[in-house]
What does this fold into?
Amino acid sequence: MSSIAIPALTKDLKRVLIDADTIARRVNELAIKINTDYAGINDKLIIVGVLKGSFIFLADLCRKLDISHEVDFISLSSYGNSDQSTGNVRMIMDTRENLDGKHVLIIEDILDSGYTLDYLCRNFTSRNVASLKTAVLLDKPDRRKVDVTLDYIGFEIPDVWVVGYGLDYAERYRTLPYIAEMIPVIK
Ligand code: XMP
Ligand code: MG
It folds into this structure.
């Protein structure tokens, strides 16, 4: 079998913040915890991924779960073309599944100001879900504007823009196997 070449950093990327092996180990640890925490529920767990950034994290995490679960997606918009959250979150696409009375686990790529996840938690709670938990791959605690309860956190990171493993800058770098810090864009 030929070995897979790891894409090199481009001129926009400063350094690898979290390498692929470290991500895989942490995703595995989170899956073990989720398997244990939901072992007792009788109904299927609905895993709701927030598009687009969570898609790789969600795919890797779900394939490590041995509890019964369904996958669904939601699409929200808060940033527009800026890299600063406005707090003005809108739903672009809702889940296919009716969440009423269901156990729901939200999967998000990164928690920054907290506006997006706060909006989603309020929205889902108003649908009378049976239970609601949140899992984020990355947490930037220094940027928090609203308090959000996180049940599963992959890594805490500093206040830098990161890409890779699902995260993008203007739709670029999503499929890098690692998480890299971007060189700040001068505006
Ligand atoms: P809030 O501020 O609502 O934002 O917690 C969460 C959303 O902001 C995006 N985000 C990032 N995306 N690299 C990215 O690719 C980053 O460093 C970053 N910081 C925030 C992301 O879409 C997340 O869902
Ligand atoms: Mg996102």
Remarks:
- The chain has three helices and nine strands.
- The longest helix spans residues 20-37.
